[in-house]
Amino acid sequence: MKADLNVNGRAVSVELEPRTTLLDCLRDHLGLTGTHAGCEHGICGACTVLLDGEPVRSCLMFAVQADGYAITTIEAVAPAPGELSIVQDAFCETHGLQCGYCTPGMILTAEALLRRIPDPTRADIVNAISANICRCTGYGQIVEAVALAAKRLAGSNMPRALPPGEGA
Amino acid sequence: MKPVPFDYVRPQSIAEACAALAREDSVIIAGGQTLIPMLAMRLARPACLVDIARIAGLAGIREEDRAVVIGATTRQTEAEYSDIVARRVPLLAKALPFVGHAPIRNRGTVGGSVANADPAAEIPLVLVTLAGTILLRDAAGTRAIAAHDFFLGPMMTAIPTGAILTALRFPVWVGERIGVAFHEISTRQSDFALAAAAAQVSLDADGRCLACAVGIGGATPVPTRLDAAVEDLIGSTLTDDDIRAALAAAIDTVEIMVDTHASPDYRRRAANALALRAIAQARDAAGQVRQGRA
Amino acid sequence: MSAQPFRFVATPRRVREDRRFVAGRGNFVADVNLPGMLHVALVPSQHAAARILSIDASSALAMPGVHAVATGAELAAAADPLMNGLDTPRVRRFPLAVGQVRYNGEWVAAVAAETRALAEDAAERVAVDYEPLPFVLDPEQALRPESPAVHPDHGSNILLDRTFVWGEVERHFAQSPRQLSFRVTWGRNSTVPVETFGVVAAWDPWNELLDVWASIQMPKYADQIARALRVPANAVRVHYDVDVGGSYGVKRGIKHTVLAGYLARRLARPVRLLEDRLENMRAGDAHGPDRIFDVAVAFEDDGIINAMRMQALDNAGAYAGRAPFQLGKPIGAIVGPYRIKSVEYRAISVTTNKAAQEAVRGFGQSPTNYAIETAIERVAAAVGVDRIEVRRRNFIRKDEFPYLIPSGTRYDSGDYHTVLDKVLAHVEWPKLAHERDRLRQDGWLAGIGIAACLEPSGGNSAFEPLLNPKNTTTTWMESCRINVDALGHVAATIHTTSSGQGHETLAATVIGEVLQIEPDRIRIVRPDSLASLPGNSPVGSRMAIMLGGAAFHAAEKLKRKLMAIAAHQFGCSDQAIDYAAGAAAERNGTRRLDWGELVTIAHRNFHLLPPGFEPGLEVTHVMQVPTGTALPTQDGRVQMYPCHSFELHLVLVAIDPELGKPQFRRYVIGHDCGTVINPAIVKGMTLGGIAHGIGAALLEEFIYDDQGQMISQSFMDYVLPSAHEVPDVEIVHHCTPSPFTVLGQKGSGESGYLGAPAAVASAVNDAVAPLGLAFTKLPIRISELSDAVAAARASGKDRIGTGTA
């Protein structure tokens, strides 16, 4: 079956079985391996992508359901090859990760949160990232990363850019 | 954990959807947040998925006289942030943040949660507590089932074969002092509730209870309204003692679910404690309201 | 070990690995794609124990895209059994069940197909005929001779039953005025990484080489693959540049790799075996210690503990694996931080029809600490002395180090009293106690939890020869090679995979420190196993000590080479040279050679090199474990790990008496791991370890029903802590350097996890103590907690108010 998708601002067309999740489509058909599989039943959040700017679990969608949305994966977050977004850089600054496996999901969740709530409380941050399981960090430095990113975004004097493909 | 192979169809209308459902081994998919894990574990093995999420007219939130009607395929997040829901069905607005996590609510639908009828689900509990209605369509036409008659057991509803849930009607209370509260207890925040309680009260100018709705879920096979308790509370000032006494009798007679996640004693005790808090908190919230609601 | 301030060590520095991960550019095993790669799905046993009568794969093989269905019989003919650590040759283990299945979920057959989905479709069509057998799940049952033997050829279910007596236990018990005993149980749980285990194996028949990419944390991995597949060890090439998505001990992957390697050779196609979550939870390297402790202590009226008897009965599951050694490692810290004079320790490991345990973070130390800390708490209650004061009285004093414990290990250094004082000052102890009392007055059950414990670090595997005299290993080395190229750029090697510990940053920081050059200029590379120097992977909290040490010594060698080259130019002795930031200058003169000049001489001007020098600028160091060189004595004494970090947890918990759910109100950990090479890394380890510990104490358990079915199969039932379940932890630092390491560093890879379960249990028990209750099994579930409180109140033991606002 064919699925016409908008991924990171690009239109792509894939031919796949209906039972192929959006997660497997991104990884296996589109070579976007930054999105990770942790449980394949919608609990761990390692597969998080943005759909029209909001986080969803890509293991709980089939590719054939995903047409008509702007899909954003971690690969679209860096502004240019070798450059980090403010959120990505904040994660590096506080060491809000260790093994890196849950990290793409965490970063997308953080990006979406900060777009919706530019000045989040600790509770807002914890609430948002509670949808993503991390087994390495105990979450402390991740919360610090998101708080730091909020501060830096506020002072960045930049318009809040939508993820690629949005606003269309 | 890949599902069994299946076909996927996307009907353009409810009639088409009903026709597609007539095929054996077809199931509806809307949000997919409860179906897809079952598919991944191969516990659900349909031959065809009928995707109703984009059928025109099935999503949306509208106000009617004394009710808010939420289309079945309305995403839970949309209801969570809806101004109409916040103003007119505040109990639902209170409950929605407890539904899973935000990414689940971004895809999950209000109707899907009701059709799935998980005993721990929050939306069915609110629907039952407010004595709402489930609207359906099948080949024969439209019908409405009262929430009270809709949930038959864990994961079991009165949806007739081949029918599609089209909308949920939530009654709206009119009054000067209305307060709501929702509590649940789970092993982790955002896990399925071991027990949950929803309460809505309306007070008169002297703080006496004009109307009260209390429901418990999680602990029971189906969401359960505590009508007996409510009767005792009408006309009282809802002191903590009033509430405790009214609940004690009601909760002792409710059927409690038995499974491995918690003892029945725990569920009963927790349901009682949460219902008590919910009613008291709703009472306090109602007491703080100065302006009436249209 | 130096007292002067460091330039790079112990200063804030970004972890360089983070950069690629935040961009989604990790190289995890699922990202490794080879042309023609086949995918494996497993056929699991439904029974806890059953004879395999027949396997009919014909229907599966008939499906398009299916290449093979392998069975245990086939593997047993083609491969050697996986290695056991103990001397138990009749407990044989293969990647697939041979002749009989021994636990629910055990892999019976493996399907290789064009896609994973097809492999799963085909796996469902493999028809296995079973004859159910009697099974045993309970370890105390398994001890009895009449219990069904999981491995009949072995004769019983006992893998290990060894009693050690260190010191005059009998006499101390006889002469102590007081004794008490108790049982505590550590429920089966583990560290469950978000990434499951996966391996890609490819056999090149032209070079006769098996390439392996895996999400692995396993010492001697290549050796074990080679042995099992009956190929020379230098026919196996493990690629260490695969990023591992968390392991915390568990990813041993041998059965997966032998299976994938076998299929790769048989089918002449690369093969990927990537566990899905169900395969992982039921039958992967997922389960951890499952242990019953029976403890008795003999003590004085003032709470000083003289002697301890501990029996640890561990339910290893259906195969030996590493589980029995997880009873041995804690011997190296069997008295915890306390001056207990003598110990009798009986370690029993039994087989049952549960999944086989794998190594878990701490290798048995966390459960053991839970038992030791329970003893201290009980002693305090018995003598009516405050729990903090009793610990104070029993702590080894800082002037007693190196301190020899009864089982033969010398603790290197520590200052437990100061860490305790710092933590108490940080929380303003009277205020914390007052807070607990205030919560109680408001109707909460409230408790303060305390746990003091050690993190043995350095990974000396002395528990292997201790529990298996046929094993005479006395080294557990790690290596580093530094090469300075002709243009003066530095590249250094590490010989392992990493799972988030920041090893590249660690090595670069240490090398930069010694050479006094910016660590960011040092590139760290991971050669494959054939090109690597000896190493033993990041287990046993060893890498700060061993990799740090190897990198340090290699860098020192390099520095001395540079100084010798300069000395030779100046015609003076090496001792008259001062080295600073890459340049070498004569101390009493003006001549100086900078880095570029020294490099040029080394790479180009052989005629200017000192006699005996090789051209180029390359050094290697293979490091032995400090202090660990001797085999165990006859009575089972041995120096286990070289270094001992210390942690002291202080936790305030509030519990709604009806709802039974503990809430963390405050969590403080005092942490002393000696010199901290990278503060952010150590902080992360500590916070992550505490999160694991909270899971073990309150949430996580692999539950089997009485039919031997493993019912915690997915994340719906095996509950992992999210950000809501882990409090904001405050860390109070102290530094007692190790005298045995190059920078005074100790390990911290297990920190937090080793004490958190004990601390949380202590807090909950303090909260329910006024009701006469104590919980003695982890995890403590909210339903059981609430039921116990209700029962206690109903029977009139209640001394506190009911309900909360």
Give the proportion of residues in helices of chain B.
25-40%
Question: What is the count of helical runs of chain C?
Answer: 21
Radius of gyration of chain C (Å): 28 Å
What oligomeric state is this? heterotrimer
Largest interface: A-C, 56 and 57 residues
The whole-number mean of residue pLDDT values of chain B reads: 95
Overall mean pLDDT of chain C stands at 96
Helix and strand pattern of chain B: EHEHEEEHHHHHHEEHEEEEEEEHHH
User: How many structural domains in the coordinates of chain C?
Assistant: 3
Class by alpha and beta content of chain B: alpha+beta
CATH architecture of the largest domain in chain B: 2-Layer Sandwich
| CATH topology grouping of the largest domain in chain B | Enolase-like, domain 1
- Shape assignment of chain B: globular
Residues in β-strands, percent of chain C: 15-25%
Total number of strands of chain C = 29
Describe the global form of chain C.
globular
How many domain modules of chain B? 3
Number of helices of chain B: 12
The CATH class of the largest domain in chain B: Alpha Beta
Which tags fit this structure?
heterotrimer, A: 168 residues, alpha+beta, Ubiquitin-like (UB roll), DNA polymerase, domain 1, 2 domains, five-stranded mixed β-sheet, 5 strands, globular, C: 805 residues, Aldehyde Oxidoreductase, domain 4, Aldehyde Oxidoreductase, domain 3, 3 domains, seven-stranded mixed β-sheet, six-stranded mixed β-sheet, 21 helices, 29 strands, 23% strand, disordered C terminus
Report on the architecture of this protein.
The complex is a heterotrimer of chains A (168), B (294) and C (805). By secondary structure, chain A is of the alpha+beta class. Chain A has helices at residues 22-29, 86-94, 103-116, 122-129, 140-154; strands spanning 2-7, 10-15, 48-51, 54-57, 70-72. Chain A has a five-stranded mixed sheet with strand order 2-1-5-3-4, sandwiched between helices. Chain A starts with a strand and ends in a 14-residue tail after the last helix. Chain B has three domains: 7-51, Uridine Diphospho-n-acetylenolpyruvylglucosamine Reductase, domain 2 (2-Layer Sandwich), CATH 3.30.43; 61-171, 2-Layer Sandwich (Uridine Diphospho-n-acetylenolpyruvylglucosamine Reductase, domain 3), CATH 3.30.465.10; 177-293, CO dehydrogenase flavoprotein, C-terminal domain (Enolase-like, domain 1, 2-Layer Sandwich). Chain B is 35% helix and 25% strand. Chain B has helices at 14-22, 35-40, 76-80, 83-88, 90-95, 102-107, 110-116, 122-129, 147-150, 227-233, 240-253, 264-288, and strands at residues 7-9, 26-29, 48-51, 61-64, 67-71, 133-138, 141-146, 151-153, 156-157, 164-171, 177-185, 195-203, 209-217, 224-225. The model of chain B has no long low-confidence stretch (mean pLDDT 95). The relative contact order of chain C is 0.13. Mean pLDDT of chain C is 96; it is low at 800-805. At the A-C interface, α2, α3, α4 and α5 of A face α1 and α19 of C.
